[in-house]
Specification:
Low-confidence stretches: none
Bound molecules: flavin-adenine dinucleotide
Distance between the termini: 18 Å
Radius of gyration: 21 Å
Shape: globular
Number of strands: 20
Mean pLDDT: 96
Largest sheet: 9 strands, mixed
Strand content: 25-35%
């Protein structure tokens, strides 16, 4: 019988496991991950940016956890010798129509307590010589890291603290009984007093197995990337972002210098017909039916079909993708770019068609479900793990004996 079992070995599940193993050293902790390596999905397919928190609504979990979490992430990397860099970033307005949005973003950043500065075209050129812009914001505290590596270190700490970690173990059913929770998997059954769902792209399905009401469905959005050819990496010094569309939870295609020296361009945001589908042709019948039969999807599709279509065009036409990139760096051309691996984002959608913007954590009976942990959840993972532990201390009296 375990005290705590976590479903999902991405950065959020592993951070939660690490926080539990530190707060409750007497607890028996189990992590179940269906893939053969940690961080196989969102955590292993992202841009690797340590976000500072400029984009997020003041007072939201995203704003607070990004600000505190980025600092916690940097400290964690320093202590554990994980390569990272606080290189800063620029957000660039390239059209007059974007200037009011840039100003709103600047005010938001100030409200979120960040170290930011308005810059004109001259200063922009000094920071990023190949960028063309009317104005920008310099965000000093943004950085880069490899989150897969961070997740692996979280896993090794859990193990060192006595936790059990099982790969290749897919949770298939959950029965919440009076005397504990029975978890059925492809590798047999486990019993636990408390269960935490950190299943990312599958988190709504795990919540459904436990019959907890969330009114949320995960809609997968694939983010496709190109990579600058090595001889063209000089075009990007650090991180270059456009002004995001305020109606969307995604940041727009941007340039990211990765910690290993590569430079990525992307991601776009295309509806994916497979939750864990990294290629354009990937299709899963159940995932497709789930999207097509969800009222929330049709409500949002009727509102934003034009944007969706534009994303599809940008997905299938390299020329259209390059055109978006040229708004930031005019001298870039299609021949400078090669296809790079894609990622899939888990975006929670309500049945009334509202996108869940903030991190969303739901409590059941002796369970907690992390139902929405999109970007910047990798940056904020240490804070999310701590928040889950805090919730557990309030809803699970038995936890006190394990401290
Ligand atoms: C393209 C892209 C770019 C991004 N860029 C950034 C960025 O620059 N900075 C940032 O902070 N964030 C970024 N994000 C967001 C960030 O990567 C995610 O928010 C974060 O990784 C979520 O972690 P997670 O642990 O919740 O999910 P995941 O990493 O997806 O982990 C969930 C795990 O649960 C497992 N699982 C699912 N079902 C089961 C089951 N039944 N049994 C057992 N295991 C199961 C899965 O196999 C998976 O390993 C980006 C995301 C994407 C996709």
């Amino acid at each position: 019988m375990y005290d705590f079992t976590i479903v999902g070995g991405g950065i959020v599940g592993l951070s939660t496991g690490m926080a539990l193993s530190r707060h409750y050293p007497k607890a028996k902790i189990l992590i179940l991950e269906k893939e053969k390596v940690w961080a196989s999905h969102q955590t292993g397919h992202n841009s690797g940016v340590i976000h500072s928190g400029i984009y997020y609504k003041p007072g939201s979990y995203k704003a607070r956890f990004a600000r505190e979490g980025s600092q916690a992430m940097v400290n964690f990397c320093k202590i554990n010798n994980i390569q990272h860099e606080i290189c800063g970033k620029v957000i660039v307005a390239t059209k007059p129509a974007e200037l009011p949005f840039l100003e709103n973003l600047f005010q938001r950043g100030l409200q979120n307590g960040l170290n930011i500065k308005k810059i004109g075209p001259g200063e922009l050129k000094e920071i990023e010589p190949h960028v063309n812009g009317l104005a920008g914001i310099r965000v000093a505290n943004a950085g880069i890291v490899n989150y897969k590596q961070v997740a692996e270190v979280f896993a090794s700490i859990i193990e060192k603290n006595g936790g059990e970690l099982l790969l290749n173990t897919k949770v298939e059913n959950i029965v919440n009984k009076a005397d504990g929770i029975e978890i059925e998997s492809n590798r047999g059954s486990f019993r636990t007093h408390f269960l935490i769902n950190c299943a990312g792209l599958q988190s709504d399905r795990i919540a459904k197995l436990e019959k907890v009401e969330t009114d949320i469905k995960i809609i997968p959005f694939r983010g496709e990337y190109y990579e600058l050819k090595p001889e063209k990496r000089y075009l990007v010094k650090n991180l270059i972002y456009p002004v995001p569309d305020p109606n969307f939870p995604f940041l727009g295609v941007h340039f990211t210098r990765m910690i290993d020296g590569r430079v990525d361009a992307g991601p776009n945001a295309v509806l994916s017909f497979k939750r864990e589908g990294y290629f354009k042709t990937d299709f899963d019948l159940q995932d497709f039916i789930d999207i097509m039969t969800y009222s929330g999807f049709w409500k949002i599709a009727s509102k934003y079909w034009k944007n969706g279509l534009e994303e599809m065009v940008r997905s299938f036409s390299k020329t259209a993708f390059v055109r978006s990139l040229q708004e930031l760096i005019p001298e870039i051309s299609a021949s400078d770019l090669e296809t790079a691996p894609a990622g899939v984002r888990a975006q929670a959608l309500k049945s009334d068609g509202t996108m869940v913007d903030d991190f969303h954590i739901v409590s059941g009976r002796n369970t907690i479900h992390v139902c929405n942990a999109p970007s910047p959840a990798a940056t904020a993972s240490i804070q999310i793990g701590n928040a889950v532990v805090d919730k557990i201390s309030k809803q699970f009296p038995r936890a006190e004996q394990l401290a």
